[in-house]
Amino acid sequence: MAEVNYRHELVGAFGDPIDENPTGIMMEAAFEALNLPWRYQLLHVVEEALPDAVRGVRALGFQGFNCTIPHKVAVMRHLDDIAPDARLIGAVNTVRREGNAFIGENTDGKGFLRGIREDAGLDPAGKRIVVLGAGGASRAVTVELALAGAAELIVVNRTVQRGQQLAQHLNDKTDTTARFRPWSETLVIPNDVDVLVNATSIGLYPDVDAMPDVDLSHARDDMLVCDAIPNPPETPLIKTAAARGLPTLNGLSMLVYQGVTAFKMWTGQDPPEDVMKSALQQAFGL
Question: Is 239 tagged catalytic?
Answer without folding.
Answer: no
